[in-house]
Amino acid sequence: MDISVVDQSPIFTNTDANEAIRHSVDLAKFSDEIGLKRFWVAEHHGSTAFAGCSPEILIPKIASSTKNIRVGSGGVMLMHYSPYKVAENFRLLESLFPNRIDLGLGRAPGGDSYQSGALAYGSKTTGPEFFPTKMNDLRSFLANERTETKSFESVNVTPGLGLIPDTWLLVSSDQGAEYASFFGLPMSLAYFINQDCLHLAKKYRENFKPSVFSKEPRVSVALFVICADTEEEARVLSSSASAWRKNVERGNFGPFPTCEDALNEIDTYNETDKSLVGDQRSIEKKLRKIIDITAADELKIITICESMQAKKESYKLIKEIFS
After folding, report:
1. What pLDDT was estimated at residue 117?
2. What is the pLDDT of residue 116?
3. What is the CA radius of gyration of the chain?
4. Phi and psi at residue 155, to the nearest 5°
5. Is residue 111 within 8 Å of residue 48, measured between CB atoms?
6. Residue 219, SS3?
7. pLDDT score recorded for residue 129
8. How many other CB atoms sit within 10 Å of the CB of residue 216?
9. Measured in Å, how far apart are the chain's first and last C-alpha atoms?
10. How many whole angstroms from its chain centre is CA 301?
11. Which residues does 50 contact at the CB level (< 8 Å), separation at least 6?
12. Orientation angle between helical segments 55-65 and 17-33, nearest 10 degrees
């Protein structure tokens, strides 16, 4: 079982965005050292909790700081951007780092309506109804094929750039699974967003159409996991994210509290279906249950906790489960 990282560059009350980005690069180096498969960075805009606003800028920094791990986006929010520009960006990255670049695509806005409006400045094609058209055009630009949009028939991607990066679709709904199977894209199920999405793996495989992106269906599952030597330690580490979620429910979208502050805010940790928290034995049991349901080829792990050393140890313990 391949184990990968999705890193959202979280910001804590005792850090800032600059430090969060440096921590992402540090975590990528460690992930490379212990033999993890991929390191994906997220796209969030105008957020005081997540610093990763531009995957295509952060990816080359991480790729140049590592040796073997694949590096990609988790994901680029295609609704905001020109498929032509996305294709050139990622084929150029593939030129710079051959066989190491992933293009994970998302359909969510990655920010509130104000941020989306600023990103959409000058564009009329940002609504979700345009996603299939943009996906068609992106496929054509990545594969050097004739586009279905007639006005782009004379548009060519810069000749000589790298080949098609490993391209995935982030999915948390039936509609997303339908797009992934129709376009022949590997599918990354966002269990950390929607815990009712695991059944989509079967539906996706049944309807999958081979394509330039993949000859066969591939499924990964993205989960929020914290693993430690003991259950109690894991629960303490998870308090920051747990308190942050409660703050979000109250309309407070600020940075993640420290463990000390979080434990003062919440009396006890209550595990939700969104997070898997525990020692190696309990985490293995929970992960294998999800693997059995989805027949996943890969797990993409999101870990948010205050101590960078504890975060690294969590990934190391999860890697050991499947070594």
Report:
1. 65
2. 65
3. 19
4. -95, 130
5. no
6. strand
7. 80
8. 10
9. 8
10. 9
11. 8, 9, 10, 11, 20, 42, 44
12. 40
What was the pLDDT predicted at 272? Answer: 53
What tokens were used for 215?
């000859």
Cis peptide before 254 (omega within 30 of 0): no
- Residue 250 covered by a domain: no
The Cα–Cα gap between 156 and 250 comes to 48
CATH (domain of 146): 3.20.20.30
**How much is the pLDDT for 266?**
73
Q: Which domain holds residue 67?
A: 2-233+274-321
Q: How many structural domains does the chain have?
A: 1
Within-domain flag for 241: no
| Amino acid 121: pLDDT | 60
pLDDT of residue 265: 80
Q: Does some domain include residue 282?
A: yes
Question: Of 254, 224, 122, 132, nearest to 183 (Cα)?
Answer: 132
Mark residue 15 as left, alpha or beta (left: phi above 0; alpha: psi -120 to 50; beta: remaining).
beta
Q: Report pLDDT for 209.
A: 98
210 CB burial (10 A radius; 0-12, 13-18, 19+): exposed
Nearest to 57 by CA among 25, 80, 99: 25
CB contact at 8 A, 161 and 92: yes
- Asked if residues 276 and 286 have their Cβ atoms less than 8 Å apart, the reply is yes
Task: Round to whole Å and give the CA distance between 31 and 81.
Answer: 30
* Cβ atoms 183, 154 nearer than 8 A: no
SS3 label, residue 190: strand
Sign of CA dihedral 10, 54, 179, 63: negative
Q: What does pLDDT average to in each consecutive run of 10 residues of the chain (323 residues)?
A: 97 97 98 98 95 96 98 92 94 97 86 66 70 93 89 88 95 97 98 96 98 98 98 95 92 94 73 80 97 98 96 98 93
* Alpha-carbon span 14 to 35, nearest angstrom: 30
Phi, psi for residue 149 in degrees, rounded to 5: -80, 110
Cα 316 from Cα 301, distance rounded (Å): 11
Does residue 256 sit within a domain? no
Strand-pairing partners, residue 310, are: none
